[in-house]
Write a structure and sequence with these properties.
five-stranded mixed sheet, Nucleotidyltransferase, domain 5, 415 residues, alpha/beta, binds 5'-O-[(R)-(carboxyoxy)(hydroxy)phosphoryl]adenosine, 16% strand, 45% helix, 10 strands, binds zinc ion, globular
Length: 415
């Protein structure tokens, strides 16, 4: 993904800040390195994501403590790959290593530093065991700022990333900027676009569903959000109920596309069900998806022959029910606030049908609204979005001692 960014004219890019970003809010371990010019042009040096899907598949969902263990195993190897790809990984040479070994005071200083790191990582001992050999072997990279997702997300997972960031920050003496995960799902859209404000952002992920009014970067108001399950969580739970596999979102999306291709949507079998569209007509901007899961459960009990055709039909109906509600509430917000742009973000925004139907709706009803949606691999969790958001908030940089994970962090608390 080198040399990839907005307004990037090769040769005229002058680096303002180089950011190392860490994202571990759920089940993906992400590290990215981003160069940003002072006027907000970006050059992506690396963006590595290590997915834990294969591990969580066996259990049909993410168990936070299991995800924490995987982050501990993955962070150092992912950091090495990210630094290598960015050409920022360099070994201490043997003369430098000898110099430390030969000097008692240098050894003592190093041991003291490692003791502090042990304290920082006292709840992540597996990570501690991996970071020490790494710090002994490789030099401090040429990086100005560390950005880390500090919330919202799964608490034990957030803490691994935050404590990893603290350990690196302390050892390398690089400040940290804490990043809100929801905001980063939105701001990833600025990688290649100049967004006109005011804008409405719809964040739809496994953990969140929020409609946000944006007056500019850093100026937000949450208009509405889910009262129970998130959109992605609903897709994952429905897929589990229908025994389709994990993670549900991409599987439902694939089956629904097959249903469309096979014309099943137009020639429904007697077994086909119509699911509710919860809260679709309410005047607020809130959502509720847990009823959909219950409706799927009852509908599924009534069907005897659960063949491939049935599964495709159900997948397409579940997906359409979610899409209908998301589009209705979002287009209402676009009209009510007369905004210039619509921004999508989060794992569910990778859904092709959702993208297509939003696009069609906007073309028909508000053709002047600009529509932004991330590239597929930037819809789901990654650290590049953390780096980009860290850039906009670089003034919030802090000493490592003042950073903590906040699993319920709210976007509106960002000024
Ligand atoms: O943003 P994300 O990677 O992690 C969270 O912050 O939660 O979102 C993950 C969610 C999961 O619920 C997954 O099923 C859903 O995004 N997802 C999709 C698709 N790809 C991922 N949902 C619908 N269609 C997709 N293609
Ligand atoms: Zn996410």
């Amino acid at each position: 993904m080198n040399q990839y960014g907005k307004n990037l004219i090769l040769g005229s890019f002058s680096v303002g800040v180089k950011i190392l970003a860490i994202e571990t809010s759920c089940d993906d371990t992400g590290i990215a390195i981003l160069e940003a010019s002072n006027n907000g042009d970006f050059n992506v040096l690396s963006n590595i994501v290590s997915s834990q899907i294969e591990i969580h598949k066996k259990y049909g969902g993410v168990y936070p403590m299991m995800a924490k263990r995987e982050h501990q195993n993955n962070l150092v190897p992912v950091l090495i790959s990210a630094l290598k790809q960015a050409k920022l990984l360099s070994l201490f040479n043997s003369a430098e290593l000898q110099r430390v070994k030969a000097s008692g005071s240098k050894i003592e200083k190093q041991n003291q530093n490692f003791k502090t790191i042990e304290k920082i990582l006292e709840r992540e001992m597996e990570l501690y065991k991996k970071i020490i050999p790494f710090l002994k072997k490789y030099k401090k990279p040429n990086v100005d700022l560390i950005a880390v997702t500090n919330g919202p997300g799964l608490e034990p997972c957030l803490w691994v990333g935050v404590n990893f960031a603290k350990a690196l920050s302390y050892f390398w003496n690089i400040p940290i900027v804490p990043v809100n995960h929801i905001e980063s799902h939105i701001l990833v859209n600025t990688l290649e676009n100049n967004i006109k404000f005011p804008a409405i952002a719809l964040v739809v992920s496994g953990g969140h569903t929020q409609l946000v009014l944006m007056k500019g970067i850093g100026k937000y108001k949450i208009l509405g959000e889910t009262r129970d399950d998130a959109a992605g969580e609903c897709l994952d739970k429905c897929a589990k109920l229908l025994r389709l596999g994990y993670p549900g979102g991409p599987i439902i999306s694939k089956l629904a596309a097959e249903a469309t291709d096979a014309g099943l949507l137009f020639y429904r079998s007697p077994a086909s069900v119509k699911l509710p569209r919860p809260m679709i007509g309410t005047k607020d901007y809130d959502f509720s998806f847990s009823g959909l899961k219950t409706a799927v459960l009852y509908a599924d009990r009534k069907v005897k022959l659960k063949n491939a055709k049935y599964k495709k039909e159900m997948a397409s109906e579940v997906q359409q029910a979610v899409i209908d509600v998301l589009i209705k509430k979002t287009t209402k917000a676009i009209r009510d606030f007369d905004v210039k742009s619509l921004i999508l973000g989060g794992g569910v925004s990778a859904n092709q049908e959702l993208r297509k139907q939003f696009q069609n709706k906007l073309e028909k009803e508000s053709p002047d609204t600009n529509f932004f949606v991330p590239k597929l691999d930037l819809s789901t969790d990654n650290a590049l979005m953390t780096a980009i958001t860290g850039f906009y908030h670089k003034k919030n940089k802090k000493d490592w001692k003042n950073i903590k994970a906040e699993s319920n962090l709210r976007i509106s608390s960002i000024k």
